[in-house]
Write a structure and sequence with these properties.
Elements lengths: L4 E5 L7 H12 L6 E5 L1 H11 L6 H5 L10 H7 L5 H7 L11 H6 L3 E8 L5 E5 L9 H6 L9 E3 L2 E5 L8 H7 L3 E5 L11 H7 L7 H8 L1 H17 L3 E4 L14 H14 L3 H6 L1
Parallel strand pairs: 1-2, 1-7, 2-3, 7-8
Antiparallel strand pairs: 3-4, 3-6, 5-6
Length: 282
């Protein structure tokens, strides 16, 4: 293997359990990358990969997501968001938490991390890096994972952010711009999936008055996603990129909490990751 390598995890809510399986297989096989780019839940997945904590991600989808503290109407009444990101990337992830991130190992690993979020005021993507994070202060993950309607935007240094998927859902351009020669792209939907904008337009209407630019970004997400996946397929033909995607999602939707379905999708990711080593070493 020569040149710089990158891996992208596009998230996808609880469907990102698929990528958790992919990354655990990579850790098991000792595969390394120079850059990781995470969108939404994909950013948390990659943090565990960089810290070398195999198996850390899966309980976030199969165990913690079933708790009221994680996702509930109570959260909406108390904090204004159904999904409590402070619980996910604070209570659980901080020192002493059930799933504490090994921040020391995370920082010692030379692999860089780019986290994609969407500026709620401009609707444009914002890219955070490892140096923007401190131990027990994982606000960048919260910003990247703030799903519209499910969450209010999360503020970092006074700027409100929504989920990175609104503005740069499949950020392959950033990986090659950074200098990667080979990129592994983990999708949470089948490679053949074509997004439509019907649901996004309906959801955008719910917050357009307060954040018109972010709402516009959500309305155009499907077009950007479809274009970026098409570009990824062209890079794949050139041997520069490998798409790792499920042939089906096992019935897992963005907020699905069916443990059996989630475990099956996770195992599918683990099996599909078998292709990565050959790609990197070709």
């Amino acid at each position: 293997m020569s040149g710089k390598t990158g891996i992208i995890d596009v998230g996808g809510g609880l469907r990102a359990v698929y990528a958790a399986g992919v990354l655990d297989r990579c850790l098991e096989e000792g595969l390394t990358f120079d850059l990781g780019i995470g969108v939404s839940a994909g950013s948390g997945n990659l943090a565990s990969f960089i810290s070398g904590q195999a198996g850390r991600n899966v309980p976030f989808y199969t165990v913690y997501a079933r708790r009221r503290e994680y996702l509930s109407v109570g959260n909406l009444l108390r904090k204004g968001s159904l999904l409590n990101l402070d619980y996910v990337y604070g209570t659980l992830s901080n020192r002493g938490g059930e799933a504490a991130l090994d921040f020391g190992a995370f920082t010692r690993n030379p692999m860089d991390l780019m986290v994609v979020a969407t500026d709620a005021h401009t609707g444009l993507p914002h890219y955070f890096y490892k140096q923007d994070m401190q131990e027990d202060r994982y606000d960048v993950f919260k910003a990247s994972s703030s799903l519209p309607v499910v969450c209010k935007p999360y503020e970092v240094d006074g700027v409100p952010y929504y989920d990175g998927a609104l503005s740069d859902p499949v950020p392959i351009g950033k990986a090659f711009e950074w200098g990667c020669d080979k990129v592994v792209l983990i999708l949470s939907l089948p490679e053949s999936y074509v997004r439509t904008d019907k649901k996004d337009r309906k959801n955008a209407a719910r917050f357009r008055r307060k954040y018109p630019a972010a709402a516009a970004a959500l309305e155009h997400r499907s077009q950007i996603y479809n274009r970026q996946v098409a570009e990824a397929k062209e890079y794949a033909k050139q041997g520069k990129l490998l798409i790792v995607a499920p042939d089906d999602t096992c019935g897992v939707t963005t907020l699905c909490r069916d443990t059996d379905k989630l475990n099956r999708l996770n195992q599918k990711g683990y099996r599909d990751a078998a292709r990565i080593a050959e790609f990197l070493n070709d």
